[in-house]
# Entry
Amino acid sequence: MAEEAPKYLGSWKGRVIKAIAIDGAYTWNEIRDSTGLSTDKLKLVLREMFNVDAIRKIKVNEQTEYRVDKALYNEYKTYFEQEQEEKSAPVVRISEEVQKDLAKWIDQWKDLKKLKIDLNRRHFFLEGRFLDEFSKDVIVNAKAEVLVTNPWIRKCNLSETLREAKEKGVTVTVIMRKPDNGEDKGYHTLLKDEEIRLYNNESVHAKIIVIDRALAIISSMNFIVQSSGGQSWEAGLVTLDHNVVEEVVNSILKLIEKKESTEI
# Structure
């Protein structure tokens, strides 16, 4: 196992390097889709990396492609070849069109529920059954990726939507605490058998859902019957703001990479 993490790992710069060097995303669109970054954020990250000679542009069949500095490339290849793949962010392809369509879907959802939500403000508040319904509906509607951090994942209608999303070919990744009993452990085994990526981290207490790296739900709701079933009052904020969502995603991916996070 590599003794030290390579330079920039755990940042968007590192994720762009990994996309190019490890995942084979060479063009602008491939890198954007692999990271899910907004156009402005990706431009900023690439500019900063050009300024320190971390990457360069080349022409391949009249097409502009990106390559990583040789020393950095070797660092990343060595790191991810030495039993580190389980610590890497999930490889996804999320088009900009998919992310834009999510906002359209929310607009339709709020009209169906007769809720007065102003999407121009990029954030809105939900509580009670509307938070529960929105969380379930948006997970099932995911097109590429669902990221979840939650201390407790037990069988309930909300957690079952993770299985529905996976059945549709969506990449689903969950970071949680170890199960308290055999029943919960059995359910986690079921999720893993269905190729949902599960990580244990005993420090996790935040309740976050990210859909297609375009929307984040930050709330009090656990993936258990008491929360999702309405026995307790739950509330939270939904954001579509690119800057906020990108920070949330980066925090979750860094959590995956921490040594105390172990894949089940």
